């Protein structure tokens, strides 16, 4: 495993996320009700819960794709209060240290796989094309897609696209990675390719928050399982403990529904 | 046979007119597309004054017949001491027209780009400027290509309006030839063929692009 350079690993192991009292509403509709979460550096947090619980919204609040109405976000030594004005510098710093992977990949279709991974490096980190391409090729090789470098995303399978998207996020050397149902749009078999890349990342000590319906991944890979329902975190702790003996009836109901499928 | 022989005789004179028509169309398209992009950005701007100005320019350009704009430039502006040669007035009027129509097509193209593209770009920390010009716009323009080619064809056919202010374009050439021996039927049929010979392949290319885009969508 050579996903990230040792310096990245050292940095990753020192950065966690502290989210305090995050609230978010759309008009009258409350989506997040005073949610707090602590993600220890170098750990994997799996976020599960029924549809509409607010998982995606919560995840997207971490890198301010969604702007919470109140609360504080502490990432990589920066404290951000989204309810107030967020400076462009703070926002840039936040997004530099947090990478994100989407359910629908969201690769740039007009760029080759290589360009997808290199372009953000050139623009955000100011790397030269040569430096960026070199790093991109390392990462594409790491996710097993070196031979796809010259292809456009439209020519790649969903699983390949998602692995390119992971490489694109990793290329900016983030200390934290967010995943929003990264395998939900994929056939189960293809999803495994993506999950195995994520397992490697976790083994490398990347701090990760993963919204997922993959219970096996949540049980085997995550250090903390967080269950959300009705705009709140209703239960969190050791994944095996929660899965075998949930404390909340709402959790029990949800787990039964997913595990019996 | 006699028609063909006569047409062959008319052709050199027609060609100079066709050249002028293509020149006017070329200039108004080359200037109209970039202006159209600027207008499409103005119309989507946050600033109310900018947005209103953009909307006014677009709506007049689309709402008023090209001939009216042409007359305003050629006959109207000299009242304010601004006089143009007829061919310049024709280029200006058609440029406005092209800009107004293309701006709406570009705006629709840009709006059709999936929201996830902007989100991914934002999440990567790419600047708003780069997100627009390097991520969203290239994709929006791609889907705007067929519509923009339609505007080009429309502009080429619109050059015939310049006849009304005595620009020596294709229609004017045809009329001059026709008035020599009163073979109006033949000469205007030939003019129609000249327009079609240019427009039809352009339409086929447009359809080709539309099909390609549909396949890659
Ligand atoms: N832009 C928006 N405007 C209004 N309501 C929204 C918006 N985005 C999300 N919501 C609402 O917020 C609630 C939480 O949505 P969210 O996408 O966070 O849920 P989720 O837990 O990720 O669900 P799923 O498992 O289906 O992805 C839902 O009721 C949704 O309808
Ligand atoms: Mg979701």
Notes on the protein architecture:
The complex is a heterodimer of chains A (261) and B (217). A six-stranded mixed sheet of chain A has the order 6-7-8-3-9-10, with helices on both faces. A four-stranded antiparallel sheet of chain A has the order 2-1-4-5, covered by helices on one side. Chain A is of the alpha/beta class. Chain A has ten helices and ten strands. In chain A, α4 (113-125) packs across α5 and α5 (129-142) crosses α6 (158-170). Chain A has helices spanning 6-12, 55-62, 88-97, 113-125, 129-142, 158-170, 188-203, 215-221, 239-244, 249-259; strands at residues 17-26, 29-39, 44-48, 70-75, 78-80, 98-101, 176-180, 207-211, 224-229, 232-237. Mean pLDDT of chain A is 90; it is low at 1-13. Chain B is mostly helical and 217 residues long. The relative contact order of chain B is 0.15. Chain B contains eight helices and no strands. Chain B has a single domain, classed as Orthogonal Bundle (MetI-like fold). The model of chain B has no long low-confidence stretch (mean pLDDT 90). Chain B is flat and about 70 Å long. At the A-B interface, α3, β6, α4 and α6 of A face α5 and α6 of B. The complex binds adenosine-5'-triphosphate (ATP) and magnesium ion. Adenosine-5'-triphosphate (ATP) binds at residues 26, 29, 31, 49, 51-57 of chain A. Residues 26, 29, 31, 49, 51-57 of chain A line the site of adenosine-5'-triphosphate.
List keywords for this structure.
heterodimer, A: 261 residues, alpha/beta, globular, disordered N terminus, B: 217 residues, mainly alpha, MetI-like fold, 83% helix, binds adenosine-5'-triphosphate, binds magnesium ion
Number of strands of chain A: 10
Structural class of chain A: alpha/beta
Q: How would the global form of chain A be characterised?
A: globular
Query: What share of the residues of chain B does DSSP label as strand, in percent?
Result: under 5%
Instruction: Give the SSE string of chain A.
Output: HEEEHEEHEHHHEHEHEEHH
Give the overall pLDDT of chain A as a whole number: 90
Secondary structure tally, helices of chain B = 8
Q: How many domain modules of chain B?
A: 1
CATH homologous superfamily annotation of chain B:
MetI-like
* Share of residues in helices of chain A: 40-55%
- Give the strand content of chain A: 15-25%
């Amino acid at each position: 495993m050579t996903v990230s350079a040792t310096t990245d690993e050292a940095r990753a192991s020192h950065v966690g996320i502290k989210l305090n009292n995050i609230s978010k509403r759309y008009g009258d509709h409350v989506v997040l009700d005073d949610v707090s979460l602590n993600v220890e550096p170098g750990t994997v947090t799996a976020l599960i819960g029924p549809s509409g619980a607010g998982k995606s919204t919560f995840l997207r609040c971490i890198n301010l794709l969604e702007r919470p109405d109140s609360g504080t976000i502490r990432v990589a030594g920066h404290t951000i209060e989204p309810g107030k004005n967020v400076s462009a510098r703070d926002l840039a710093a936040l997004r530099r240290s947090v990478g994100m992977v989407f359910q629908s990949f969201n690769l740039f279709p007009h760029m080759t796989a290589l360009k997808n991974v290199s372009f953000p490096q050139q623009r955000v980190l100011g790397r030269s094309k040569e430096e960026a391409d070199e790093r991109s090729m390392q990462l594409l090789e790491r996710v097993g897609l070196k031979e796809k470098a010259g292809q456009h995303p439209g020519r790649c399978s969903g699983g390949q696209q998602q692995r390119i998207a992971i490489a694109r996020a990793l290329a900016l050397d983030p200390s934290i990675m967010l995943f929003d149902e990264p395998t939900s749009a994929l056939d189960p078999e293809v999803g495994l390719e993506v999950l195995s890349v994520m397992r490697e990342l976790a083994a490398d000590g990347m701090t990760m928050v993963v919204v997922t319906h993959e219970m096996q991944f949540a049980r085997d890979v995550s250090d903390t399982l967080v269950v959300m329902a009705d705009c709140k975190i209703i239960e969190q702790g050791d994944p095996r403990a929660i899965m075998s003996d949930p404390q909340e009836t709402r959790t029990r109901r949800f787990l039964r529904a997913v595990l019996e499928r | 046979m006699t028609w063909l022989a006569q047409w062959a005789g008319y052709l050199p004179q027609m060609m100079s007119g066709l050249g002028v028509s293509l020149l006017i169309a070329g200039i108004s398209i080359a200037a109209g597309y970039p202006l159209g992009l600027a207008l499409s950005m103005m119309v989507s701007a946050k600033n109310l004054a900018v947005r209103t100005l953009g909307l006014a320019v677009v709506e007049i350009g689309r709402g008023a017949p090209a001939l009216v704009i042409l007359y305003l430039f050629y006959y109207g502006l000299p009242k304010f001491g601004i006089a143009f040669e007829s061919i310049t007035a024709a280029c200006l009027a058609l440029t406005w027209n092209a800009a107004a129509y293309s701006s709406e097509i570009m705006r629709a193209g840009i709006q059709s780009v999936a929201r996830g593209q902007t989100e991914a770009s934002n999440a990567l920390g790419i600047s708003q400027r780069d997100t627009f010009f390097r991520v969203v716009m290239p994709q929006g323009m791609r889907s705007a290509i067929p519509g923009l080619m339609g505007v080009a064809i429309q502009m080429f056919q619109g050059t015939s309006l310049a006849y009304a202010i005595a620009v020596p374009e294709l229609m004017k050439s045809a009329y001059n030839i026709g008035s020599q021996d009163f073979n109006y039927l033949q000469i205007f049929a030939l003019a129609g063929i000249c327009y079609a010979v240019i427009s039809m392949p352009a339409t086929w290319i447009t359809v080709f692009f539309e099909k390609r885009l549909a396949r890659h969508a």
